[in-house]
Write a structure and sequence with these properties.
- The structure is a single chain.
- Helix content is 83%, strand content 0%.
- It has one domain.
- By secondary structure, it is mainly alpha-helical.
- Helix 1 packs antiparallel against helix 4, helix 2 packs antiparallel against helix 3 and helix 2 crosses helix 4.
- One of its GO terms (cellular component) is plasma membrane.
- Pfam families: ATP-synt_I (PF03899).
- Keywords: Cell membrane, Membrane, Transmembrane, Transmembrane helix.
Length: 133
């Protein structure tokens, strides 16, 4: 994921594909399990959208006021944590979705961060290579 002006579209595509595959697997256990996995994956997609929004906002702010940009990152992390916690409670408590498919759908979508990062070089090592040549 390219933080500096990059697009989260590839990450969303990987997440969506993983979630659909996981939900398809849970479909063998019934429609409710598949819907629960889709809910968990949707939760992860919403979390990723908030991450992208907070990274863009913090990056723009950090250029003017670095400390405020860091605080925006912290606030974004707390905001995402509370969103995930609340939506898990709604899914399992209010909607009565089965917990295992919900958690597996969420965790499976989070694997997209690992898949999306394969083959990418950290920015710090790229900067080091550029200064050496």
């Amino acid at each position: 994921m390219n933080i500096q002006g990059g697009s989260l579209y590839p990450l969303f595509c990987i997440q969506a594909c993983l979630v659909v595959g996981i939900a398809g697997g849970f479909l063998l256990n019934g429609l409710e399990a598949a819907l629960s996995a889709l809910y968990g994956g949707g939760l992860a997609l919403a979390n990723s959208a908030l991450l992208g929004r907070s990274l863009r906002a913090a990056g723009a702010t950090a250029q003017r006021e670095p400390k405020q940009g860091v605080w925006m990152l912290y606030f974004g992390a707390v905001q995402r944590f509370l969103l995930v916690l609340t939506l898990f409670a709604v899914g399992m408590g209010v909607l009565g979705l089965p917990p295992l498919p919900l958690i597996v759908g969420f965790a499976g979508a989070q694997v997209a961060f690992l898949i999306g990062g394969i083959g990418r070089t950290p920015a710090s090592s790229v900067d080091d290579k550029e200064t050496r040549t």
